Amino acid sequence: MTSKDGYSWTKAQGLRAGVPSIGVIEPPSNVKSADTVYDVIVVGAGYCGLTAARDASLAGLKVLLLEARDRIGGRSWSSNIEGYPYEMGGTWVFWGQANVWREIARYGMQDELEISYDFSRGINKYLLSSPQGTQTFTHEEEDALMQSSLAKLANVDGCLGKTVVPFPHSGVLTPEARKYDHMSVADRLAEIKNDLTPNERLCAESFVLLCSGGTLETTSFYEFLHWWALSGYSYEGCIDYLVKYKFRGGQSSFAINFFKEALASGNLTYAFNSPVATIQHGGNGVQITTRAGQTYKSAKMICAIPLNVLNDVAFDPPLAPGRKAAATTGHVNQCVKVHAEISDRDLRSFTGISYPHNGLIYGFGDGETPAGNTHVVAFGGQHNHFHPEENLEHTKAAFQGFAPMNIERLVFHNWSKDEFAKGAWFFPAPGLLSTHLKDMRARESNIVFACSDWALGWRSFIDGAIEEGTRAAITVRADFAGRAKL
Ligand code: FAD
Which one of 319, 344, 346, 378 is most buried, by most CB atoms within 10 A? Predict the structure, then answer.
């Protein structure tokens, strides 16, 4: 099946909107009666909504899952082009992420991971490009440079940030954490400007921008420290947790298991291609109307809609002021993630930074396609932002910013223009978490708001989405059982 989402380009076919994915659900709806009153309606079929819908339906609740798109997975989905999965959004997972690993084990997928990097052949080098030219390093030198630059950035306390974020799965921001949340990474870099070598500065800045998809000024320094803490306070940990292990069959091969299990319960009704327009709620339950004018009713609702598009839905009564303000501020991540299939086999083992002049900041060999070509993945963001489909020559030139390469195919999803995401993974500007983390997590009457964007642990990761979906289903089940709410 082909999703309306995503783009691909080849010389022969030109630019095409829509790419094939096993995450597209057919038939798009199994709604039998418009009059059913559900126990719970889940809006959003990303990992959070999928987890919530599965857990609630397995618990015996009558669940309706409504999704705006034609597919599951939300910001994590894979296209399948000529038998090869290109990850359009969320990709890498790690066994240190407890919620993700619980689910991988549940579906028996422990042996379906592979490592993105392959340093066994080809040029096997780290290419550091700046306006001054390209420097070449071994991967061991790359690791040492990245570790020293990130350690200097994070070392606010002489303990690599361990006293500032001692419990990275806690939702409590201590006064010190708040202080750093009100600081941007640009502020922190100004503090240590005399401690960094020019290369360390290039590495630190580009790595932070890879994490946030924003600018140095719009990146909360606390949230960077939070990622660092989750990753074991080391660069090696960052690689293991953030960019190393992915599913051989693509993310959609994981997500589809959640959906199938929920469906097999016999308690799941679903409707894709159903963007929700209005949500009325109160003591008597919830009434949801789609843009097409279809109305659905339920006792409870789990709203798994991302922060940056929450204000596009009309809530009656309106969203609580704190949540509304958080959604108005939004998160800052406008990551540009693009895949290229290139005929240069030697580049399978390159990693590279091209900064600050280039549109794509960070890139590396991510796989080998069935044709034996190299698959390169690259990331840009708000810094030198661009829309890949608007100027393909610019997009291709951004890949050449790492090294000369012969591009045969491009594949991407424009998350900035996506009306159901308006950005990539959550990354906050200074102050957002200190001011609104609690607001984003609070429930309102019969609605539980759940999303990776306000998870406590791996916030903005697949793990955080599953953490939130689990919490939402437990909360709703407790409601029905008359137990105390979480
Ligand atoms: P979403 O996946 O956004 O799900 C929300 C759903 O709500 C969507 O399906 C959306 O269509 C739907 N929706 C929105 N509005 C409406 C409406 N009005 N009516 C009905 N439905 C609506 N995480 C990792 O762990 N590892 C990674 O390597 C990684 N890389 C990433 C790279 C990119 C480019 C992106 C974009 C994200 C990445 N992430 C990664 C983050 C991860 O993908 C997300 O944190 C996670 O998938 C979010 O899940 P969610 O269910 O909370 O939200």
Answer: 378
As for ligand 1, residues whose beta carbon falls within 6 Å of it are 43-49, 66-69, 74-76, 89-93, 275-276, 304-306, 309, 313, 335, 337, 415, 420-421, 424-425, 451-452, 460-463, 465
Is residue 303 within 8 A of residue 450, CB to CB? The reply is yes
Specify the DSSP class assigned to residue 45: -
- Torsion angles phi and psi, residue 19, rounded to 5: -135, 155
d(CA 479, CA 391): 51
User: What mean pLDDT is reported for the chain?
Assistant: 97
* Spatial separation of the C-alpha atoms in residues 40 and 477, rounded to whole Å: 10
Residue with tokens 């070509």: 373
Task: Summarize pLDDT for 441-452 with one digit per residue, the tens.
Answer: 999 999 999 999
pTM above 0.90, yes or no: yes
Give me the amino acid identity at 67: E
Q: What is the pLDDT of residues 183-192, one digit of tens each?
A: 999 999 999 9
Tell me what ipTM this predicted complex has. Answer: 1.00
| Rama region for 438: left / alpha / beta (φ>0; ψ in -120 to 50; rest) | alpha
Q: Give, using CA atoms, the residue closest to atom 6 of ligand 1.
A: 44
d(C-alpha 433, C-alpha 171), whole Å: 10
The pLDDT of residue 134: 98
The rounded distance, in Å, linking the Cα atoms of 203 and 401 is 16
Task: Provide the 3-class DSSP secondary structure of residue 360.
Answer: coil
Q: Residues 215, 184: contact at Cβ < 8 Å? A: no
Quote the ligand 1 centre to 76 CA distance (angstroms).
6
| pLDDT greater than 70 at residue 484 | no
For residue 27, is the peptide bond before it cis, meaning its omega torsion is within 30 degrees of 0?
Answer: yes
- Phi, then psi, of 382 in degrees rounded to 5: -60, -35
Whether 307 and 323 have beta carbons less than 8 Å apart is answered as: no
Residue to substitute in 425, 427, 459 for testing ligand 1 pocket (most ligand atoms within 8 angstroms of CB):
425
Question: What's the 375 CA to ligand 1 centre distance in angstroms?
Answer: 23
What is the 23 CA–ligand 1 centroid distance (Å)? 13
d(CA 468, CA 49): 9
DSSP conformation letters of 84-105: EEEESS-----TTSHHHHHHHH
Using the atom order of ligand 1, give the atom closest to the CA of residue 450.
Answer: 52
- Percent of the chain as helix, strand, coil, to the nearest 5: 35, 25, 40
